[in-house]
Amino acid sequence: MSSILSRSTRVNLRNVERGVWLQASRLYSINGTFGRAVLQRPQAESFQNTTLRDIRPTVFRRHQSSESDGFAPPSIYNYEDIKKLSVNPEEDKILVDVREPAEVDQGFIPTAINIPYKSAPHALSLSEEDFEEQFGFPKPSKEKELIFYCLGGVRSNYAQELAVNFGYDKRGNYPGSWEDWVQNENSRK
Asked: Which positions fall inside the Rhodanese domain (predicted)?
């Protein structure tokens, strides 16, 4: 299987084998058909006596990255779109900051909720009760569009891809993210 995966994904697999759990999503191709390799938490509670060979069948799940499987690509948002949402929030759209809490403490886009991608990639898979207990606000409904942003657009893209696996097919991404927001806000002053 490692021959069809990118070098960085193989490195991630070695980290899993050593007991370091990473969430990752990488494009791969089998006979010209593109899909995604998405790391998922295996059933074992710990990695102490588990090898990669033991968990490999449970780690990868194939996800087609096409509209034919019912998942539309995410909507792309720019500064003007996000500014409108921050001033006049829409009930069916939620702005999600996926940066870590220490980053959010330095500033955030008004009306955004914080669901950190790196430290809580599993957040959208939690039950409504567990989510609210962990984050202090209700879990977003799958009926609403989640619009992700981070510092520079990388984590937000991974977060919106991961959200599909948890049943959120209405997704958006603000590729400019926080850096673009700050630059545009400062230029308006």
From this structure: 89-186
